[in-house]
Specification:
alpha+beta; 115 residues
Length: 115
Amino acid sequence: MHPKQKQKLEQKKQAKETLMQLFQIAEQNFSKNKQKSDKCAKQIRKLQLKFKIKLPAEIKRRICKKCDKFLKPGENCKIRTKDGKLIIHCLECKNIFRMPYKPKKKTIKKQKVKD
């Protein structure tokens, strides 16, 4: 492997670790300081675009795609399910984005009848 490729892979790994740390900071500080959590969300988005990193679903759903604000359900966003889609409504910029959603099938356990 070429040295430049190794260097890029190392940078990507460091960026992923930084993304996770920024996400945790944003979650912890949301109730205390919303501006700090929004700043962390913007940094997450910048790192993601710079290093072409695919965000995990838990992070992807918690950052608005339009205004780059950190979303907390019930506080500044609404989350609904309808027709096999997860609908996230940002209350900051009024943006709506939809994601495919497959509900888990409930399994019915058969109970043995005793005579």
